[in-house]
Write a structure and sequence with these properties.
about 325 residues; eleven-stranded parallel sheet; ten-stranded parallel sheet; 33 strands
Amino acid sequence: MSYITQNGAGAFTGADWDNAYRESDRATWLAAAGPHYFKGDFTAAGNWYSSVNGFRAIGCRPGTTATPPTSFTDFATGSDRPTVTLGASYTAGVSNYAQWANFNFTGSNTGRVVYLTLLSTLYNCVVNNTGGSDCLDIVSGQCAVIGCEIYGATGTNYAINAGNSASNKFVGNLIRDNTRGISAGTDTYLVQNILARNSVYGALFAGDPDCLIVGNILDDNGQALQCSNLAVIINNIFSNNTTAFNDEGTNYYMDGNNWYNNTADLTNGTKINVFNTTGKGPHALALNPQYADAANNDFTIGNASLKGLGFPSIAFDEMMAGNGFNHDLGPLQAR
């Protein structure tokens, strides 16, 4: 366990906040699993890369004094997250089974700003690349990106580039204002995310993806979603996209989605889903979501008519009791 600030304190042993490591001591703190607690902003003078399996880095609020931090009020959210300025040359990366939590990573890198490897997690972080390349790369699969905001990828680059790596989980993120949003492989979970203003596409899943795509908002993208066979696509809101869904494969489980003001909802409406029908499924909707302020990333749904109109629960106990219920559409509760 260690404590880290930009300029450190005391004897620079990392034993507590009064003797915190400096950023320049990174060779020491990156060589230990941690957990490592950070507060205040940082300017990196080298790569923040740890080759230690299980490395854990956690951002704390500026006023935190607890050792170790344990209270919810100790941990950083929003503008309290430590900003790590990586510049044009440096990257934040981890080895397997690792975690970054509660940071604001910014870089002008022509490569990636942050990367994850096997079974690692990025939680409650912001990642922005003003250098035009990828924001986050996932080098190998089974990683999780949860509650993050990722933006700034331009050209042929990605907000999240997972390549063909499998079994990644993307939950509760805001992926906005990129050329390309998410690229990933098979067995991907895309759940309760907002993908907005990604000019080429929001999410692209390669191969036979066997993906779960549930409860997302996909708004004002070029092509919002593309995938091949065996995807479950339910309770999403597709709105204001050039193309909402490029259905390249067959055997979808698609229903209960809302399709509003897309130039094209489907590029190939002849594909068959499990209902043995073409197109969107028997419970598709076409209602205006009435977002609170989409231009400023407030996608709170103003249309109460979308509340409780998602595809019904198929929980076994509910079916047996005859009490099937409907979920809301999209990741945010209707007001």
